[in-house]
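**User:** My hope is that you can spare some time for a protein that puzzles me. As I understand it, each token names a local backbone shape. I would be glad if you read both lines and explained how they fit together. The protein I mean follows directly.
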Amino acid sequence: MSLFQLLFSRHKSLIYTAFGSQDYFRVIYRLEAAGVSFRTRTHLDPRHHTGSFSFSTRDFTQYDIYVTKADVYKAQMAIHGN
């Protein structure tokens, strides 16, 4: 998280780190269904992403999902609860 985002974003609590788009969309769907506001930061590993075409069939993208401090419990219940 950049210094600007750390100071001015209200989404400061890292609630989940997803690896691959399938895991990411599963979590995002649950947060949206629960009405939880979130922000995502994406990390691409340059060892696995070479240019616009990758030879790997596996998705190595890391997604950090942040929520507001007030929504931490609600987000945890949405992701891990029933």
